């Protein structure tokens, strides 16, 4: 799952939210502050703005970062307690509102709704197998939130296999389904790409891409 | 909004999601050297749609004359984030070079190989290549002269030596660059290494070899040493070769594999081998393109000197591994002359065309050389000038490259030879200065 940038007015409420997000499999980070000269690392998959007790969430820091780094399509969640809600502008610019206290299940639903609201990602657009995730809307693959750098055809092959799991595909079918035209390499191309994808997936997940001897390949979910 | 191809979209989206700052556009010149220029991400969309204008004469190697307009079109399917320097993400794409009118640029080696592969495809073949790449690691002495890193012997692996650390890191980088490594070990010469790549189609492999040379240099640089693919860097040590394992596949099957006979090669493989041997002289200026290449070929250490093939012995131009029943994919020929400094696009183009001629003309290979008996066998060219002269009149090279690319390559190699001839060397001074 992807990085989350946390904007917290105080340490305590920030780390509480961080723990909850980590429990759901996200990687929470303290968000960079452009006015403090912080350089952004990689692009976050989500931003969470946490207001201190009785206060509104720190929307202004986020807006500065947005303007500076073109983050307009990053989903944003605004979280406050009942007192903070009264202190907030009624029409704040965020995709979802979360009022503390909340349950982990509610957080999960709010995150999913924010992601759909921001960049149209439906649940079905993120395919996962354990900690391996493929985001079909953004073409990004990750393991435990760490991005993997596939070439386009490696990505397409993995996507096809992950969206059709636990079925055996002969090399020729994969060549037709994924490449779709006559390629210089012939069916051997499939073997080469499977080998490359496995190398990039690393030991833990490579085993999911199973060779079925003298038939083809299967992705085990 | 313009309708974009999914692979363009993939590149644009990935650049954005991953925070890539620059994209390096790569092409190679006729000598096989990588040319690279960076464009900022803001220029990428236009580059993908319309290409980027370049001076085409930069592809002409030493034969460069006047400026010539050309357009480099990045191939989105070769888009790859570079694994080194993760602090500021950079990606690369290989380019196809075209003339402003849209026709292929004749001096683009990638195009020459692409065309040869299309001809093979018309006959139903794909051309598979697996290289064994040798190179040296050096540290620089205070005066800048190179110092070999260690005296480790073959397969010598210790946990704390620079060399194995280096290989592990290199292999990680290569795997991240989609270049599957088959094996790696320490070579016979001090400080020499070999990395073998898993076989794949020739165009992907030529791109992989180009990337490999850069990746190895980058890793060495990170460790404060340097890597060299110079064919013969040290006088008394073995040089660096790049043995090429070649085979043709048809309908997913290895066409060299002899399922019924007891020979090492099926008919297709025998004809291909015969074609390569028949044109071995003309090929050499391309598989061994530098003055220094011939210092390797002429100095023993199992480097080939004659046009010959064998199943077992050392020193032959081609080794044919014995038939391994049930191991169909393993049937191949191993060409032992090329060095890792060659233009692998042009070398593979010419080798494929030579092999296909053998098939067309149903050539049979000469008898196998056994026990290293080399008497009476034809010799490979002795130096770059002799090799280049053979290439200059080669009909095979004209058909494979087109006359313009052949002549450009010949001109660039002659310029190399002339530059070498203009040098008065330490060898001459030592021998002659006081004696004459």
What can you tell me about this protein's structure?
The complex is a heterodimer of chains A (221) and B (436). Chain A has 221 residues and is α/β, with parallel strands linked by helices. Chain A has helices at 11-23, 59-69, 82-87, 104-119, 152-163, 171-179, 188-201, 203-206, and strands at 3-8, 27-30, 46-50, 76-80, 96-99, 126-129, 132-135, 140-143, 146-148, 168-170, 209-212, 216-219. In chain A, strands 2-1-3-4-5 form a 5-stranded parallel β-sheet, sandwiched between helices. In chain A, strand 3 (46-50), helix 2 and strand 4 form a beta-alpha-beta unit. In chain A, helix 5 (152-163) packs across helix 6 (171-179), helix 5 (152-163) packs across helix 7 and helix 6 packs across helix 7 (188-201). With 436 residues, chain B is an alpha+beta fold. Chain B contains 13 helices and 17 strands. Chain B has helices spanning 6-18, 44-50, 109-122, 162-176, 202-222, 267-278, 280-287, 293-297, 344-360, 384-392, 395-401, 403-421, 426-432, and strands at residues 22-28, 34-40, 52-55, 69-74, 80-81, 90-98, 125-140, 146-148, 181-186, 192-197, 200-201, 226-228, 242-250, 253-254, 309-310, 318-319, 333-335. In chain B, the strands form 2 sheets. In chain B, strands 7, 8, 9, 10, 11, 12, 13, 14, 15, 16 and 17 form an 11-stranded mixed β-sheet that branches. Chain B is globular. Classes of the chains: A alpha/beta (221), B alpha+beta (436). Chains A and B meet through helix 5 and helix 7 of A and helix 1, strand 5, strand 7, strand 11 and helix 5 of B.
């Amino acid at each position: 799952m992807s990085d989350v940038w946390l904007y917290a007015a105080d340490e305590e409420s920030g780390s509480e939210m961080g723990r909850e997000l980590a429990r759901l499999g996200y990687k929470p980070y303290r968000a960079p502050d452009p006015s403090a000269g912080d350089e952004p690392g990689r692009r976050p998959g989500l931003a969470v703005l946490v207001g201190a007790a009785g206060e509104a969430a720190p929307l202004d820091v986020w807006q500065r970062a947005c303007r500076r780094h073109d983050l307009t399509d990053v989903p944003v969640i605004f979280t406050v307690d009942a007192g903070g809600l009264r202190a907030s502008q009624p029409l704040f610019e965020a995709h979802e509102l979360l009022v503390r206290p909340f349950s982990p299940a509610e957080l999960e639903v709010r995150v999913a709704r924010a992601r759909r609201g921001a960049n149209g990602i439906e649940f079905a657009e993120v395919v996962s197998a354990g900690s391996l995730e493929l985001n079909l809307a953004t073409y990004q693959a990750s393991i435990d939130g760490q991005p993997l750098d596939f070439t386009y055809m490696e990505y397409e092959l993995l996507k096809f296999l992950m969206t059709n799991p636990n079925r055996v595909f002969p090399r020729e079918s994969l060549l037709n389904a994924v490449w779709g035209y006559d390629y210089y390499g012939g069916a051997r191309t499939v073997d080469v790409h499977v080998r490359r994808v496995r190398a990039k997936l690393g030991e833990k997940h490579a085993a999911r891409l199973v060779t079925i001897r003298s038939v083809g390949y299967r992705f085990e979910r | 909004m313009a309708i974009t191809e999914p692979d363009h979209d993939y590149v644009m989206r990935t650049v954005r999601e991953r925070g890539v700052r620059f994209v390096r556009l790569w092409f190679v010149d006729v000598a096989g050297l990588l040319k690279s220029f960076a464009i900022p991400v803001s220029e990428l969309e236009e580059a993908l749609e319309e290409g980027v204008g370049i001076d085409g004469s930069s592809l002409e190697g030493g034969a460069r004359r006047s400026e010539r307009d050309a357009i480099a079109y990045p191939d989105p399917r070769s888009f790859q984030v570079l694994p080194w320097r993760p602090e500021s993400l950079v990606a690369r794409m290989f380019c196809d070079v075209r003339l402003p009118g849209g026709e292929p640029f004749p001096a683009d080696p990638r195009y020459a190989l692409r065309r040869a592969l299309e001809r093979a495809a018309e006959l139903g073949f794909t051309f598979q290549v697996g290289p064994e790449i040798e190179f040296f690691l050096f540290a620089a002495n205070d005066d800048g002269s190179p110092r070999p890193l260690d005296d480790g012997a073959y397969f010598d692996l210790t946990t704390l030596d620079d060399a194995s650390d280096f290989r592990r890191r290199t292999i990680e980088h290569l795997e991240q660059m989609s270049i599957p490594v088959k094996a790696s070990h320490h070579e016979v010469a001090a400080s020499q290494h070999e990395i073998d790549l898993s076989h794949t189609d020739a165009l992907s492999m030529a791109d992989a070899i180009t990337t490999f040379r850069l990746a190895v240099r980058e890793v060495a640089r990170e460790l404060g040493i340097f890597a060299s693919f110079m064919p013969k860097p040290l006088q008394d040590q073995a040089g660096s070769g790049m043995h090429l394992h070649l085979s043709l596949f048809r309908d997913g099957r290895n066409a060299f594999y002899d399922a019924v006979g007891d020979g090492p090669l099926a008919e297709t493989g025998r004809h291909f081998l015969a074609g390569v041997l028949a044109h071995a002289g003309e090929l050499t200026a391309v598989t061994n393109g530098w003055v220094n290449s011939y210092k390797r070929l002429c100095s023993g250490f199992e480097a080939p000197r004659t046009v010959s093939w064998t199943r077992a012995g050392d020193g032959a131009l081609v080794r044919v591994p014995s038939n391994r029943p049930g191991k169909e994919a393993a049937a191949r020929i191993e060409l032992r002359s090329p060095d890792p400094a060659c233009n692998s696009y042009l070398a593979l183009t010419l080798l494929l065309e030579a092999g296909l001629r053998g098939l067309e003309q149903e050539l049979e290979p000469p008898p196998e050389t056994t026990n290293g008996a080399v008497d009476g066998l034809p010799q490979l060219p002795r130096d770059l000038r002799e090799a280049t002269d053979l290439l200059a009149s080669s009909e095979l090279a004209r058909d494979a490259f087109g006359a313009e690319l052949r002549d450009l390559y010949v001109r660039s190699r002659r310029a190399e030879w002339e530059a070498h001839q203009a040098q008065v060397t330490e060898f001459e001074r030592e021998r002659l200065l006081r004696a004459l």
